[in-house]
């Protein structure tokens, strides 16, 4: 199955699991992490408290609670420090571990944000390459539908770095909560 790059609010996607770009405490934060916690409701943070956190590059799974997805897979991406501190290997691990958990729990559809590309500072073009390459390799051996969700201005910036063949997979959701670049 192909990777579909979509511009949608990840908290509104109806799929088996969404991936949360979490911090190591798993107790919520800003960006995607905060949005997922707010949309899922207080039971999500209560379950996350029982997990004891998550190291960078690993993943944990919880119920989706008030989200339209059955599960939330929490993964902690690396903070960008210039690229010489194993960031790429850790980011690859985030995607791979999340996909493995999705399979283990019987998921057929999974939606990812562009992990580490917000507050953690990973360059968006490099984060996109890691995401597409890692998910693509996984899909060569496993049947899943994977959505890579981008938001706001990200989609416009990312389009510049994609080859033409990949651009056709981008789905601009006209009903998106995020404004389009004029």
Could you explain the architecture of this structure?
With 182 residues, the protein is an alpha/beta fold. The chain is 34% helix and 19% strand. The protein contains 6 helices and 7 strands; from the N terminus they run ββααββαβαβααβ. It has helices spanning 31-40, 42-49, 87-104, 124-139, 154-159, 164-167, and strands at residues 3-7, 17-22, 59-63, 71-76, 109-112, 145-150, 171-172. The protein has a 7-stranded mixed sheet with strand order 3-4-2-5-6-1-7, sandwiched between helices. Helix 4 (124-139) links the parallel strand 5 and strand 6 (145-150). Helix 3 packs parallel to helix 4. It starts with a strand and ends in a 10-residue tail after the last strand.
- Binned, the helix content reads 25-40%
Taking the sheet with the most strands, its summary is: 7 strands, mixed
Mean pLDDT: 87
Order of strands across the widest beta sheet? 3-4-2-5-6-1-7
Total beta strand runs: 7
